[in-house]
TrEMBL record:
It comes from the Bacteria. InterPro entries: DUF2851. The lineage of its organism: Bacteria, Pseudomonadati, Bacteroidota, Flavobacteriia, Flavobacteriales. It comes from Flavobacterium okayamense. This is DUF2851 domain-containing protein. Pfam families: DUF2851.
Length: 423
């Protein structure tokens, strides 16, 4: 028996509510199971019970065995002084509060039908990609939609934690915070963390000062990425190197020897040289970028902001000293969509929450206008008949797989709960 299964059984009253008794044969009536806290302290807060005709209000703690009470040292913790019922699967020892008063114990295994346990066992016994993959089509549309909305918000909350950390480290400057977050996403999976460190190492006051001319920002970003530390043949590369040497001295920017961008396995359009050049162009062209970002709600507005072109040199180069066919190096729609999903909507959410002005409808409106991501997780859900229409769907399903399915949290998942109740 797992403790999370006990939580599920108690929360959803998977027992004969009219016929349960403590180990001392005292009748128990559950008026309110309590609030499921899922945090430190007792498992269920502010439950209301009638035990042996006496009404009680307090907390309920659950364990696989009664002796777990002592294993977890609850007898010494005042947070457990108000526990009115100890719900266990197996009762192996009497339990007492810190003041030595005995706590009534409900041995739940005596009041659960075998069919209920069989359903749960079947759910967890499958050796598959996810436990419920054969039953996903049975889930109601209402459950899917409400759960996806919750999953999407959970994912935004997780992303917001990083944003708030950066925000605090940037002296609560939202422009600087967005610059660092945006740089990380310009680096994609391969160079994302490296771009993040590069952006963090440049005070945003310097970016503001240098954004009047493209060469200034290119030299700053490429120099910080250790891409200007050798001899070049091209005049443009040597000019950037000269500017970078001056910037290092002017702003006291020490070398970051640990910074090493990757070119291996990347398509040329994703080379760090190109992505950093694009980031530089964006900050030269778009002034007050963060303020503009907070006010958009459609993909068309976003495309207008990110409609940038790199400097002339990078239109015929992917790297220094290597000429390539001249082309228009603009951000593709798919790349802008990734920026929207991973940078724009998360910072809109974090900024709105910080100022007490969350607007879920606006975030959802933008996500609905973006194409769904394409990766192995999304493709597997589609194989099981799940329609993935847009970025809202794909973000919710990524949260579902990574935070619930991978850890078999089926009993905390609305999909799992509905399937158990239906079967």
């Amino acid at each position: 028996m797992r403790e999370n299964v006990l939580h599920y059984l108690w929360l959803h009253k998977c027992y004969d509510v009219t016929n349960i008794y403590t180990t001392n044969n005292e009748k128990v009536e559950v008026l309110n199971s309590g609030q499921y806290l899922q945090s430190s302290g007792p498992d269920f807060f502010n439950a209301q019970l009638i035990i042996n005709n006496q009404k009680w209000a307090g907390n309920v703690e659950l364990h696989v065995k009664s002796s777990d009470w002592y294993l977890h040292h609850h007898e010494k913790d005042e947070n457990y002084d108000n526990v009115i019922l100890h719900v266990v699967w197996e009762h192996d020892v009497e339990v007492y509060r810190k003041d030595k008063t005995e706590i009534p114990v409900l041995e739940l295994k005596n009041f659960i039908e075998l069919e209920t346990l069989s359903k749960i066992k079947r759910l967890f016994s499958k050796k598959s990609w996810i436990n419920c993959e054969d039953s996903l089509s049975k889930v109601s549309d209402f459950t899917w939609f409400s759960w996806k909305e919750g999953l999407f918000l959970e994912r935004l909350e997780i992303k917001s934690k990083l944003i708030y950390q950066v925000f605090e480290n940037c002296d609560k400057d939202w422009e600087a915070t967005f610059f660092i977050l945006l740089a990380k996403n310009f680096g994609l999976n391969i160079n994302g963390n490296t771009f993040f460190e590069i952006a963090r190492s440049i005070p945003f006051t310097i970016v503001r000062k240098e954004s009047f001319e493209i060469k200034q920002l290119e030299s700053l970003f490429l120099g910080r990425a250790n891409l200007l530390n050798k001899d070049f043949q091209d005049e443009y590369a040597n000019e950037l190197k000269k500017i970078w040497e001056y910037q290092k001295s002017k702003y006291n920017l020490t070398e970051l020897k640990t910074i090493q961008v990757q070119f291996y396995k990347l398509r040329p359009d994703n080379f760090p040289t190109i992505r950093l050049a694009q980031l530089a162009s964006l900050y030269v062209v778009s002034k007050n970028l963060f303020d503009r970002i907070t006010r958009i709600s459609t993909f068309e507005e976003l495309k207008e902001i990110f409609n940038i072109q790199v400097s002339t040199y990078w239109q015929s180069h992917y790297n220094f000293d290597k000429v390539s066919k001249k082309r228009h190096v603009k951000l593709t729609n798919s790349f802008i969509e990734l920026i929207a999903i991973n940078s724009v909507v998360p910072i809109q959410f974090a900024y709105g929450k910080y100022n007490g002005k969350e607007n879920l409808d606006e975030y959802l409106k933008l996500m609905y206008s973006l194409n769904a991501e394409s990766n192995i997780i999304i493709k597997r859900f589609e194989e099981f008949g799940i329609e993935v229409k847009d970025a809202f769907d794909s973000q919710a399903l990524l949260q579902l797989k990574n935070e619930y399915c991978n850890f078999q949290k089926c009993l905390k998942c609305k999909i799992g709960v509905e399937l158990l109740q239906k079967s």
